[in-house]
């Protein structure tokens, strides 16, 4: 007899979607809060779909049912039963009111999903995380995003232990109870799905500010944190106000409650959560001050604050119908966040940052066993789909649509989308329909981008006919097949382009006999496997600048010569394409070093960058990015049999050639000049100087380690902020182990009580390259501050080692893989979400050279052989072993 399959192991399919048979019109919740045990009373007003005849099933996991009643009458045990992670109830009618009372155990909840304790038992506070399916760990409920209800929440707790009580919505009363207890009630006037429910209770401090919306509503902004962190929340408050004003001006979206709460916690699986009216943040995405935060972290705080606030409309007021539509809210909101950050800072540098992340995280994901479409057709564990594909690639698809429609057209489309779907659970089709209808354009061909995995390869070839003065650009597209899809269909690919003359001037564009006065840039759309685009009246053989601003998430293959790339690097006014030309030159140089094909490509790259190094008009931050060749992860994508140690050595050799071409004297002089102007200021120019100073110091260390480490020691000693301090420590640790011992110990002592700074200390050492990293990681695990129970700390040490240290993790003897698999197993018993996310470090193991490949396979197979893995980890490991 065949065993019945575990329902949790069966895939959930988009094609099987059905509207809910039962909806909840109104929910009233009363919490009797306690650290070890909390009781939750729920009253649900239920509505039946007349077209369906299914029984009432409420999701619920790890709940102790204490009481249940229907329409005021207690139910006998025969009237309800547990069924596959849910509670089935008989006798329910349309308009019935179901009441339940359950007990949960926050302090024992190490998965940090549902209601849990952040911090020590005696001083920590309670909070919730309900996306994607955490609410079912709090009470029985149809826990799906297309069930939207109005919430009234009452919190009751001991006043001394829980002086602050918060929930989503507007405050609606508070008072005293017997025995030193108190209560607070909150009402959210906007129906919402259960994943947006939130509460916080504990000993917290706040900063606050009054804000008036563009529509005249007065809003109280309040940011909460523990007493030792509250003074590091002021930058976040400023960023929140900037975000609100920007959304009013750019999208016409106003905040819609009387109060907006933001809470910081050190125990959080994600970056932050957009719960309606009560955002909860991982502290690393909220706290910032010069002494403990780097420039990159300041920008991240601003970006994440904006992202979660923007969700108030793109995610909350308009939510997703089902979890297959996750990118509807996340991809759109990432695009909005990126646009905001570009407006607040430097648009070219922001675009470089975003594309670099896409290539580092999403392109490998799209090329490996974990590849999936932006809208997957099926999943087993939805928490495994909070991926770079859904977020970053999803944002690129929205960017393509925005580029296709233009600024005004995109605003018309989003206005219609919000107006039409306000209060609804929408789909990607709804989004495309609104954008298209508002502009009289059929955007349905772009649906193919959402349903097809893989990164398209765009091949470009140019031919110039001097006699006819015509330039013909032939574009071809091809997306490699995978196990799920043997044939990939052509996609609409918008290609923003310009043509350059030999002197670096942009040439006027004439196509099909039509010319716009002064037009030197335009977008063509490749929507077939191959197309030709003819430009007329071209006076000389041009150099094409393609995918300007990275107009589509593809891999460009163009037959550029090194001279043509050098021309674009020196003259293209598009900051991204200028950087991209440098990256392509660096890749040519890397290939030449690897294949031993001669010095020309390396010389071309070094000469071009040496010239830019002497250009006093170039932005310091852009120069820093130009001096940095593609990383080891991107270089590995070019190899059929990946040897991480060889890639690391070749990349370092490439950097040494560049450093030698610039020269030690020039590097030292530039470093000293930048160091002389060092301050802790956060303006763009000061941040750019720090960024370039670090890049110059790293290059100098490759030529003259002693001199560079001397500079680094002084920089660490005199650093006005964390950016300089951490940068100096990194150079010392990498190039002078003996000299770095004292500052590493000093850093550990100085920041002993600062968890976020200690995360940086762990991460820096875990990322030091070489096979000795394994022993270093094991030693760091013995540090009293290390724990697997805190996601940030696990990511800082183990995640940094496996994902940020290719030579250390990918040891030929497989010891790195075995250690990591053992730690994943331990972590899975505590927090399955974090274990599954960290396990993705094995992605791409099939492309390793044979010895490492077999060692990685053995480690994964050994992990998969354990019979008590969570379904989170089972899905990730199983997918990686299948391909």
Automatic annotation (TrEMBL):
Aminopeptidase N-like N-terminal domain boundaries: 110-196
All residue ranges annotated as the Peptidase M1 alanyl aminopeptidase Ig-like fold domain in the record: 454-558
Record's keyword annotation contains Hydrolase: yes
Keywords of this entry: Aminopeptidase, Hydrolase, Metal-binding, Metalloprotease, Protease, Zinc
Domain Peptidase M1 membrane alanine aminopeptidase residue range list: 235-443
SUPFAM superfamilies: Leukotriene A4 hydrolase N-terminal domain (SSF63737), Metalloproteases ('zincins'), catalytic domain (SSF55486)
MF GO annotations: aminopeptidase activity; metallopeptidase activity; zinc ion binding
Cofactor or coenzyme needed: Zn(2+)
Residues annotated as domain Peptidase M1 alanyl aminopeptidase C-terminal: 563-881
Gene3D superfamilies: 2.60.40.1840, 3.30.2010.30, Neutral Protease Domain 2 (1.10.390.10), Peptidase M1, alanyl aminopeptidase, C-terminal domain (1.25.50.10), tricorn interacting facor f3 domain (2.60.40.1730)
Pfam families: DUF3458 (PF11940), DUF3458_C (PF17432), Peptidase_M1 (PF01433), Peptidase_M1_N (PF17900)
One annotated GO biological process: proteolysis
UniProt similarity note: Belongs to the peptidase M1 family.
Protein name: Aminopeptidase N
Organism, as annotated: Dorcoceras hygrometricum
């Amino acid at each position: 007899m065949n065993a019945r399959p575990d329902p949790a192991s069966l895939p959930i399919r988009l094609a099987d979607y059905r509207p809910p048979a039962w909806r909840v019109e109104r929910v009233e919740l009363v919490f009797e809060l306690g650290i070890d045990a909390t009781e939750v009373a729920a009253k649900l007003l239920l509505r039946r779909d007349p077209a369906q005849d299914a029984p009432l099933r409420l999701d619920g996991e790890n709940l102790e049912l204490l009481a249940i009643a229907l329409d005021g009458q207690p139910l006998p045990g025969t009237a309800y039963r547990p069924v596959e992670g849910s509670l089935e109830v008989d006798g329910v009618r349309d308009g019935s009111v179901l009441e339940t009372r359950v007990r949960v155990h926050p302090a024992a909840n190490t998965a940090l999903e549902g209601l849990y304790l952040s911090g020590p038992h005696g001083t920590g506070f309670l909070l919730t995380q309900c996306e994607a399916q955490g609410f079912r760990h709090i009470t029985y409920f149809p826990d799906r995003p297309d069930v939207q209800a109005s919430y009234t929440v009452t919190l009751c707790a001991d006043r001394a232990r829980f002086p602050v009580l918060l929930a989503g919505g507007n405050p609606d009363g508070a008072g005293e109870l017997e025995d030193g207890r108190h209560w607070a009630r909150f009402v959210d006037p906007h129906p919402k799905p259960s994943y947006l429910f939130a509460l916080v209770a504990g000993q917290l401090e706040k900063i606050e500010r009054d804000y008036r919306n563009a529509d005249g509503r007065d809003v109280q902004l309040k940011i909460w944190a523990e007493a030792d962190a509250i003074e590091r929340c002021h930058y976040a408050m400023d960023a929140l106000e900037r975000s609100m004003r920007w959304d009013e001006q750019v999208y016409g979206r106003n905040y819609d409650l009387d109060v907006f709460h933001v809470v910081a916690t050190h125990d959080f699986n994600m970056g932050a959560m957009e719960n309606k009216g009560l955002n909860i943040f991982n502290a690393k995405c909220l706290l910032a001050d010069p002494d403990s935060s780097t420039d990159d972290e300041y920008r991240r705080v601003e970006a994440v604050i904006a992202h979660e606030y923007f969700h108030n409309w793109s995610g909350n007021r308009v939510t997703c119908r089902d979890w297959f539509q996750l990118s509807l809210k996340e991809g759109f909101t990432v695009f909005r966040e990126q646009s905001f950050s570009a407006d607040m800072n430097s648009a070219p540098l922001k675009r470089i940052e975003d594309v670099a992340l896409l290539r580092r995280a999403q392109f490998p994901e799209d090329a490996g066993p974990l590849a999936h479409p932006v809208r997957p057709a099926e999943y087993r564990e939805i928490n495994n789909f909070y991926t770079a594909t859904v977020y970053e690639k999803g944002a690129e698809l929205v960017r393509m649509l925005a580029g296709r429609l233009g600024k005004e057209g995109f605003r018309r489309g989003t206005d219609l989308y919000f107006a039409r779907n306000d209060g609804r659970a929408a789909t990607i089709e709804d989004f495309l329909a609104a954008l298209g209808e508002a502009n009289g354009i059929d955007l349905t061909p772009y649906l193919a981008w959402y349903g097809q995995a893989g990164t398209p390869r765009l091949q470009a070839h140019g031919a110039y006919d001097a006699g006819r003065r015509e330039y013909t650009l032939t574009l071809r597209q091809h997306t490699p097949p995978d196990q799920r899809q043997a044939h990939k269909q052509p996609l609409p690919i918008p290609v923003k382009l310009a043509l350059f003359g030999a002197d670096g001037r942009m040439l006027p564009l004439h196509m099909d006999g039509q010319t716009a006065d002064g037009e030197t840039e335009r977008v063509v759309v490749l929507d077939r496997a191959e197309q030709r685009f003819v430009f007329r009246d071209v006076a000389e053989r041009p150099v094409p600048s393609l995918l300007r601003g990275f107009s589509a998430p593809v891999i460009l293959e163009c037959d550029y010569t090194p001279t043509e790339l050098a021309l674009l690097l020196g003259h293209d006014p598009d900051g991204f394409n200028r950087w991209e030309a440098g990256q392509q030159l660096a890749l040519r140089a890397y290939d030449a070093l690897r294949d031993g094909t001669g010095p020309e490509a390396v010389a071309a790259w070094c000469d071009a960058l040496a010239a830019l190094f002497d250009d006093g008009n170039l932005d310091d931050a852009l120069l820093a990015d130009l001096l940095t060749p593609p990383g080891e992860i991107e270089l590995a994508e070019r190899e059929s049999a990946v040897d991480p140690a060889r890639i690391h050595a070749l990349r370092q050799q490439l950097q040494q050639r560049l450093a030698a071409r610039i020269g030690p004297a020039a590097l030292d002089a530039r470093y000293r000049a930048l160091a002389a102007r060092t301050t802790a200021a956060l303006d763009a120019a000061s941040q750019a100087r720090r960024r370039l100073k670090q890049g110059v110091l790293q290059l100098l260390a490759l030529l003259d380690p002693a001199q560079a480490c001397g500079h680094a020691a002084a920089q660490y000693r005199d650093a006005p902020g964390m950016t300089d301090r951490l940068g100096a420590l990194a150079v010392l640790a990498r190039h002078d182990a003996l000299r770095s011992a004292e500052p590493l110990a000093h850093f550990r002592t100085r920041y002993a009580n600062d968890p976020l700074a200690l995360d940086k200390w762990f991460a820096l050492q875990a990322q030091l390259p070489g096979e000795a990293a394994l022993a270093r990681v094991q030693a760091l695990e013995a540090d009293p501050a290390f724990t697997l129970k805190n996601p940030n700390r696990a990511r800082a040490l183990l995640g940094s080692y496996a994902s940020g240290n290719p030579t250390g993790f990918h040891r030929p003897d497989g010891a790195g893989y075995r250690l990591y698999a053992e730690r994943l197993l331990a972590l899975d018993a505590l927090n399955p979400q974090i274990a599954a996310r960290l396990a993705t470090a094995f992605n791409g193991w099939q492309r390793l050279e044979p010895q490492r490949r077999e060692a990685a396979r053995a480690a994964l197979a050994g992990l998969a052989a354990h019979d008590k893995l969570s379904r989170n980890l089972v899905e990730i490991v199983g997918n990686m072993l299948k391909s």
